[in-house]
Design a protein that fits this description.
Strand content: under 5%
Low-confidence stretches: none
Strand order of the largest sheet: 1-2
Radius of gyration: 27 Å
Helix content: 55-70%
Protein backbone atom coordinates (compact mmCIF):
# COMPACT_ATOMS: atom_id res chain seq x y z
CA UNK A 1 0.00 0.00 0.00
CA UNK A 2 1.53 3.25 -1.13
CA UNK A 3 1.37 6.45 0.81
CA UNK A 4 0.52 9.70 -0.99
CA UNK A 5 2.72 12.62 -0.19
CA UNK A 6 0.94 15.96 -0.08
CA UNK A 7 3.23 18.74 -1.30
CA UNK A 8 3.89 21.63 0.98
CA UNK A 9 1.53 24.52 0.16
CA UNK A 10 1.97 28.06 1.20
CA UNK A 11 -0.98 29.96 2.59
CA UNK A 12 -2.54 32.34 0.09
CA UNK A 13 -1.38 35.87 0.51
CA UNK A 14 -3.94 38.60 0.93
CA UNK A 15 -4.01 41.13 -1.87
CA UNK A 16 -3.19 44.66 -0.80
CA UNK A 17 -6.26 46.77 -0.14
CA UNK A 18 -7.46 48.83 -3.05
CA UNK A 19 -6.77 52.49 -2.47
CA UNK A 20 -9.49 54.75 -3.75
CA UNK A 21 -8.40 58.22 -4.75
CA UNK A 22 -10.16 60.94 -2.80
CA UNK A 23 -12.89 62.82 -4.63
CA UNK A 24 -11.90 66.09 -6.23
CA UNK A 25 -13.29 68.90 -4.12
CA UNK A 26 -15.30 71.74 -5.63
CA UNK A 27 -12.61 74.13 -4.42
CA UNK A 28 -9.97 72.29 -6.44
CA UNK A 29 -12.21 72.25 -9.50
CA UNK A 30 -12.81 75.98 -9.15
CA UNK A 31 -9.07 76.67 -8.93
CA UNK A 32 -8.54 74.58 -12.05
CA UNK A 33 -11.21 76.54 -13.91
CA UNK A 34 -9.69 79.83 -12.78
CA UNK A 35 -6.34 78.66 -14.11
CA UNK A 36 -7.97 77.72 -17.42
CA UNK A 37 -9.20 81.31 -17.76
CA UNK A 38 -5.63 82.55 -18.24
CA UNK A 39 -4.10 79.47 -19.88
CA UNK A 40 -5.05 80.28 -23.47
CA UNK A 41 -3.68 83.07 -25.59
CA UNK A 42 -7.15 84.29 -26.57
CA UNK A 43 -8.21 84.67 -22.95
CA UNK A 44 -5.00 86.46 -21.98
CA UNK A 45 -5.42 88.90 -24.86
CA UNK A 46 -9.05 89.46 -23.91
CA UNK A 47 -8.19 90.23 -20.28
CA UNK A 48 -5.29 92.44 -21.35
CA UNK A 49 -7.44 94.44 -23.78
CA UNK A 50 -10.09 94.89 -21.08
CA UNK A 51 -7.52 96.26 -18.63
CA UNK A 52 -5.93 98.53 -21.23
CA UNK A 53 -9.39 99.74 -22.22
CA UNK A 54 -10.14 100.55 -18.59
CA UNK A 55 -6.96 102.64 -18.40
CA UNK A 56 -7.89 104.40 -21.64
CA UNK A 57 -11.36 105.12 -20.24
CA UNK A 58 -9.77 106.77 -17.18
CA UNK A 59 -7.75 109.01 -19.52
CA UNK A 60 -10.86 109.76 -21.59
CA UNK A 61 -12.69 110.86 -18.45
CA UNK A 62 -10.59 114.02 -18.19
CA UNK A 63 -11.54 115.08 -21.72
CA UNK A 64 -15.26 114.87 -20.82
CA UNK A 65 -15.19 116.91 -17.63
CA UNK A 66 -16.34 120.03 -19.45
CA UNK A 67 -19.72 118.35 -19.86
CA UNK A 68 -20.28 118.46 -16.08
CA UNK A 69 -21.69 121.61 -14.57
CA UNK A 70 -20.46 122.18 -11.04
CA UNK A 71 -18.97 119.52 -8.81
CA UNK A 72 -18.51 115.86 -9.67
CA UNK A 73 -18.90 112.84 -7.40
CA UNK A 74 -16.40 110.03 -7.08
CA UNK A 75 -18.79 107.65 -8.86
CA UNK A 76 -19.39 109.87 -11.89
CA UNK A 77 -16.54 108.21 -13.85
CA UNK A 78 -17.93 104.74 -13.04
CA UNK A 79 -20.13 104.25 -16.09
CA UNK A 80 -17.31 105.21 -18.45
CA UNK A 81 -14.48 103.24 -16.82
CA UNK A 82 -16.62 100.12 -16.29
CA UNK A 83 -17.62 99.87 -19.96
CA UNK A 84 -14.55 97.92 -21.24
CA UNK A 85 -14.85 95.27 -18.53
CA UNK A 86 -18.65 95.10 -18.83
CA UNK A 87 -18.34 94.43 -22.57
CA UNK A 88 -15.36 92.06 -22.67
CA UNK A 89 -15.63 89.98 -19.48
CA UNK A 90 -18.91 88.33 -20.64
CA UNK A 91 -17.01 87.17 -23.74
CA UNK A 92 -14.65 85.42 -21.33
CA UNK A 93 -17.73 83.75 -19.81
CA UNK A 94 -18.75 82.52 -23.27
CA UNK A 95 -15.27 81.13 -23.96
CA UNK A 96 -15.14 79.39 -20.59
CA UNK A 97 -17.79 76.95 -21.82
CA UNK A 98 -17.24 76.88 -25.59
CA UNK A 99 -13.49 76.22 -25.47
CA UNK A 100 -14.08 72.82 -23.85
CA UNK A 101 -15.87 71.70 -27.02
CA UNK A 102 -14.04 73.77 -29.62
CA UNK A 103 -10.58 72.67 -28.45
CA UNK A 104 -11.77 69.12 -27.70
CA UNK A 105 -10.68 69.14 -24.08
CA UNK A 106 -14.10 68.07 -22.82
CA UNK A 107 -13.15 64.38 -22.98
CA UNK A 108 -10.18 64.96 -20.66
CA UNK A 109 -12.20 67.18 -18.33
CA UNK A 110 -15.08 64.73 -17.94
CA UNK A 111 -12.71 61.76 -17.66
CA UNK A 112 -11.02 63.36 -14.66
CA UNK A 113 -14.37 64.45 -13.19
CA UNK A 114 -17.27 62.46 -14.70
CA UNK A 115 -19.88 64.35 -12.70
CA UNK A 116 -20.64 67.11 -15.16
CA UNK A 117 -22.74 69.07 -12.71
CA UNK A 118 -19.68 69.65 -10.52
CA UNK A 119 -17.66 70.84 -13.52
CA UNK A 120 -20.40 73.26 -14.53
CA UNK A 121 -20.72 74.47 -10.95
CA UNK A 122 -16.96 75.05 -10.73
CA UNK A 123 -17.00 77.05 -13.96
CA UNK A 124 -19.85 79.21 -12.67
CA UNK A 125 -18.04 79.76 -9.36
CA UNK A 126 -14.90 80.78 -11.25
CA UNK A 127 -16.92 83.25 -13.31
CA UNK A 128 -18.46 84.58 -10.09
CA UNK A 129 -14.96 85.24 -8.77
CA UNK A 130 -14.08 87.01 -12.03
CA UNK A 131 -17.23 89.14 -11.71
CA UNK A 132 -16.24 90.24 -8.20
CA UNK A 133 -12.69 90.97 -9.35
CA UNK A 134 -14.00 92.96 -12.32
CA UNK A 135 -16.21 95.02 -10.01
CA UNK A 136 -13.21 95.73 -7.77
CA UNK A 137 -11.14 96.80 -10.78
CA UNK A 138 -13.65 99.27 -12.20
CA UNK A 139 -14.40 100.64 -8.73
CA UNK A 140 -10.67 101.21 -8.23
CA UNK A 141 -10.46 102.83 -11.69
CA UNK A 142 -13.35 105.16 -10.85
CA UNK A 143 -11.69 106.08 -7.55
CA UNK A 144 -8.36 106.78 -9.27
CA UNK A 145 -10.10 108.96 -11.86
CA UNK A 146 -11.85 110.89 -9.06
CA UNK A 147 -8.63 111.31 -7.08
CA UNK A 148 -6.81 112.73 -10.11
CA UNK A 149 -9.70 115.01 -11.05
CA UNK A 150 -8.97 117.46 -8.22
CA UNK A 151 -5.24 118.06 -8.90
CA UNK A 152 -5.55 118.02 -12.70
CA UNK A 153 -8.69 120.14 -13.12
CA UNK A 154 -10.58 122.89 -11.37
CA UNK A 155 -13.45 120.55 -10.47
CA UNK A 156 -14.35 119.78 -6.87
CA UNK A 157 -14.84 116.08 -6.15
CA UNK A 158 -17.63 115.14 -3.74
CA UNK A 159 -16.83 111.92 -1.89
CA UNK A 160 -20.32 111.34 -0.56
CA UNK A 161 -23.53 110.37 -2.30
CA UNK A 162 -25.67 107.31 -2.93
CA UNK A 163 -24.14 104.05 -4.11
CA UNK A 164 -26.90 103.23 -6.60
CA UNK A 165 -24.61 103.68 -9.65
CA UNK A 166 -22.10 101.22 -8.18
CA UNK A 167 -24.79 98.66 -7.35
CA UNK A 168 -26.33 99.03 -10.81
CA UNK A 169 -22.95 98.53 -12.49
CA UNK A 170 -22.27 95.37 -10.49
CA UNK A 171 -25.75 93.98 -11.20
CA UNK A 172 -25.40 94.65 -14.93
CA UNK A 173 -21.97 92.96 -14.99
CA UNK A 174 -23.30 89.92 -13.10
CA UNK A 175 -26.29 89.60 -15.45
CA UNK A 176 -24.04 89.93 -18.49
CA UNK A 177 -21.68 87.24 -17.16
CA UNK A 178 -24.57 84.87 -16.48
CA UNK A 179 -26.02 85.50 -19.93
CA UNK A 180 -22.64 84.89 -21.58
CA UNK A 181 -22.25 81.63 -19.66
CA UNK A 182 -25.72 80.54 -20.75
CA UNK A 183 -25.10 81.24 -24.43
CA UNK A 184 -21.72 79.52 -24.24
CA UNK A 185 -23.17 76.39 -22.64
CA UNK A 186 -26.09 76.13 -25.02
CA UNK A 187 -24.44 77.00 -28.35
CA UNK A 188 -21.06 75.31 -27.64
CA UNK A 189 -19.43 77.22 -30.51
CA UNK A 190 -17.36 80.33 -29.79
CA UNK A 191 -18.09 82.50 -32.87
CA UNK A 192 -21.81 81.68 -32.91
CA UNK A 193 -22.27 82.17 -29.15
CA UNK A 194 -20.39 85.50 -29.14
CA UNK A 195 -22.37 86.72 -32.14
CA UNK A 196 -25.69 85.82 -30.52
CA UNK A 197 -24.66 87.40 -27.23
CA UNK A 198 -23.99 90.76 -28.92
CA UNK A 199 -26.69 90.70 -31.62
CA UNK A 200 -29.70 89.92 -29.41
CA UNK A 201 -29.29 92.91 -27.00
CA UNK A 202 -28.70 95.32 -29.91
CA UNK A 203 -31.70 93.97 -31.84
CA UNK A 204 -34.07 94.08 -28.87
CA UNK A 205 -32.87 97.54 -27.78
CA UNK A 206 -33.40 98.82 -31.32
CA UNK A 207 -36.87 97.27 -31.46
CA UNK A 208 -37.83 99.00 -28.20
CA UNK A 209 -37.35 102.41 -29.87
CA UNK A 210 -39.82 101.67 -32.66
CA UNK A 211 -43.33 103.11 -32.41
CA UNK A 212 -46.38 100.92 -32.08
CA UNK A 213 -46.56 97.26 -31.24
CA UNK A 214 -42.93 96.52 -32.17
CA UNK A 215 -41.69 99.08 -29.67
CA UNK A 216 -43.97 97.79 -26.93
CA UNK A 217 -42.80 94.21 -27.47
CA UNK A 218 -39.17 95.36 -27.61
CA UNK A 219 -39.49 97.01 -24.20
CA UNK A 220 -40.35 93.62 -22.71
CA UNK A 221 -37.39 91.95 -24.40
CA UNK A 222 -34.55 94.47 -24.26
CA UNK A 223 -33.52 94.33 -20.62
CA UNK A 224 -33.06 98.12 -20.48
CA UNK A 225 -34.70 98.12 -17.04
CA UNK A 226 -31.98 95.98 -15.44
CA UNK A 227 -29.99 99.08 -14.56
CA UNK A 228 -32.98 100.52 -12.68
CA UNK A 229 -33.39 97.62 -10.24
CA UNK A 230 -31.96 99.63 -7.31
CA UNK A 231 -34.29 102.56 -7.98
CA UNK A 232 -38.06 102.82 -7.50
CA UNK A 233 -39.64 100.85 -10.34
CA UNK A 234 -43.22 100.43 -11.47
CA UNK A 235 -44.92 97.06 -11.73
CA UNK A 236 -44.57 97.22 -15.51
CA UNK A 237 -40.84 97.85 -15.27
CA UNK A 238 -40.41 94.92 -12.90
CA UNK A 239 -42.31 92.74 -15.37
CA UNK A 240 -40.14 93.91 -18.26
CA UNK A 241 -36.96 93.25 -16.27
CA UNK A 242 -38.18 89.80 -15.25
CA UNK A 243 -39.27 88.83 -18.77
CA UNK A 244 -35.94 89.86 -20.30
CA UNK A 245 -34.05 88.06 -17.53
CA UNK A 246 -36.03 84.87 -18.06
CA UNK A 247 -35.47 84.94 -21.84
CA UNK A 248 -31.81 85.96 -22.07
CA UNK A 249 -30.32 84.67 -18.80
CA UNK A 250 -32.40 81.95 -17.12
CA UNK A 251 -33.50 80.17 -20.31
CA UNK A 252 -30.01 79.96 -21.92
CA UNK A 253 -28.57 78.72 -18.62
CA UNK A 254 -31.27 76.06 -18.23
CA UNK A 255 -30.97 74.88 -21.84
CA UNK A 256 -27.17 75.01 -21.63
CA UNK A 257 -27.06 72.84 -18.50
CA UNK A 258 -29.54 70.40 -20.07
CA UNK A 259 -27.47 70.16 -23.25
CA UNK A 260 -24.17 69.84 -21.35
CA UNK A 261 -25.51 66.71 -19.65
CA UNK A 262 -26.72 65.14 -22.90
CA UNK A 263 -24.02 65.93 -25.45
CA UNK A 264 -21.33 63.32 -26.05
CA UNK A 265 -17.80 64.26 -24.99
CA UNK A 266 -15.39 63.43 -27.79
Amino acid sequence: MTTMTIPNTRPAKMLPPVQVAPAITIGTLTRVELRKLVNTRANRWLIGIALVGTGAAVALWFTLLDLFQGDVTWLDPLFLVSSPLSVLLPVLAVLTFTQEWGQRTSLTTFALEPRRGRVIGAKLLALGAVTVLGAVVFLAASTIAAVLTGPLTDKVVVWSGNLVPLGSAVILLAIAMASGAGFGMFVMNSPAAIALYFIIPVATASASTFPGVIGQVGQWLSGDTWGLILTPMTTTQWGQAGTAFALWVALPLALGIWRSFRVEAK
